[in-house]
Amino acid sequence: MQQKKILISVGILYSTSGSYGHIGKEMLNGILLAIDEINQDSNSTVYLQPIIYNPEGDLNKYYEYCHKLLHEHQVKHIVGCYTSASRKIILPLIESANALLWHSPRYEGFEASYNVIYLGACPNQNFLPLLDWVYSQQESPQFFHVGSNYIWSWEMDRILRESIEENSGQLIDSQMLRVNDLNVEDIIEKIKILKPTTLLVTLVGTSAYHFYQALYSALDEASYNNILKLSLTLCEPEVAIQDSCVVEDYIVSAVWFKTLVLSENVEFIKKFNQRFGQDAHPSVDSVMAWVAGHMIANVIDYTGDNNIDVLKKYISNVRVNTPMGMIQIDPENNHTYLEPKFARCQKGNFNIFWQSNSLFKPDPWLSTAELQQSNLFKDG
């Protein structure tokens, strides 16, 4: 006879509409798929009950809905946020309630809270390896950075500047747009005039989609192809809503791509599309939302307890077999061991051309990370 499961309410706080609603929708799909699997698993002692709010990309609504989840619904687990601005605004609420925020997306690092489990990559797991590769491709890269005007892009810009100081090259311009700002024409003109060898895009949401289209339309083929185009945000659901030509040949650094050849990944994609349809497109952030659900269930299974202090103590003992392989949490900083990968966007797909052969220990403060070019790509 199947044992009775422990009912655990989980708050879900993803913006499924607004500037970055396409990403939010697929992150929501990721956690919902995990919840389905857990609730149907006779070996799990946990039954997860989702309580879903859509903040619509509005920071005030993130605060309001987080407060409701914690104090009206009495949840102890919240899975959510995409932008760091939204995470920062709800973090005091999470900490004061001694709850856990399961933070699924990539982020800029330089934070460590006892009440946050950081599942997405931090800069030493995506940005620094990518810069290392760029220095192996160009003797003195001339960078142009365009990003969204909040802490995510600010920190990426600072890391880029410090990296250039330790290596070679120049940051010839850095331009920031407010989230959802579509006025990219002046930035495009600067790119045409300055002729950078390397373009770094850290825009999020509709600003990014508008920029990709505008840049592609503004440059002739030779000028467009002469720029090494990098993105730290571009992902599968965003490619799916655009003409593939406008993001052709962008290089993306992430820890998961749909094209990853692993049996666990093939099974994940199959289940994802069965559950949400063939038009659903998971991203690395969707996968990490899925991981969040399984991590919650696994650590409660492991401890037999939903006491947050107990869970925080034992979370690093729990491993989860994911679509990207086995991962675990670092007890020193509540971040995740992850394996970096690079892919080139070609004809609407991400073709992986490099991946690490080992997990990278998370270093959110870049306290041990080397900014100088390593030997990883010395041979090109």
UniProtKB/TrEMBL annotation:
Q: Which InterPro entries match?
A: Peripla_BP_I
Q: Which domain of life is it from?
A: Bacteria
Secretion signal span: none
Pfam families hit by this protein = Peripla_BP_5
PANTHER family, alphabetized = ALIPHATIC AMIDASE EXPRESSION-REGULATING PROTEIN (PTHR47628:SF1), PTHR47628
Please give the name of this protein: Aliphatic amidase expression-regulating protein
